[in-house]
Design a protein that fits this description.
107 residues, mainly alpha, 75% helix
C-alpha cells in the first residue's frame, strides 16, 4: 500500500503526455479529478505509514479515503464505478483481515 501510493502520487504529479483524440474522448475526465487523485494518493500513503506504525488513525483515515474515492467516481458517472467500489471493498477487506487480529495492540 505504501509503495503503490508513493508511485501513484509521483505518476499523478508528473506532466501528462499528449494523447490522441480517441483516447481523450474515452477518458474524458475533468482536471479536478487529477488533483483529487493526487490528494487521495498522498492520504493513502500517510494512512499506510500510520498502519505501519500501529496507529488506529491509519485505518480510520483509509476508510475516509475510500469514501472520497467512491464519491468522486459516482460524481463523474464514470464507466468504472462498479470496479472502483469492488476494488475498494477488496482493499479494505484484505487490510482489515490483516490488522484485525492485532487491533487491540494499535494505539
Amino acid at each position: 500500500m505504501i509503495l503503490g501510493s508513493a508511485l501513484s502520487l509521483l505518476r499523478g504529479l508528473a506532466p501528462r503526455p499528449e494523447v490522441s483524440e480517441a483516447m481523450r474522448a474515452f477518458f474524458d475526465v475533468p482536471n479536478w479529478f487529477y488533483a483529487l487523485n493526487a490528494f487521495t494518493n498522498f492520504l493513502t500513503l500517510a494512512c499506510g505509514i500510520g498502519l505501519w506504525l500501529w496507529k488506529r488513525w491509519g485505518w480510520h483515515g483509509l476508510l475516509a479515503v475510500v469514501a472520497i474515492e467512491v464519491v468522486a467516481s459516482l460524481a463523474l458517472g464514470a464507466l468504472w464505478v462498479s470496479a472502483t467500489i469492488i476494488g475498494e471493498a477488496v482493499r479494505l477487506g484484505i487490510t482489515w483481515l490483516l490488522i484485525q487480529p492485532a487491533w487491540d495492540e494499535f494505539e
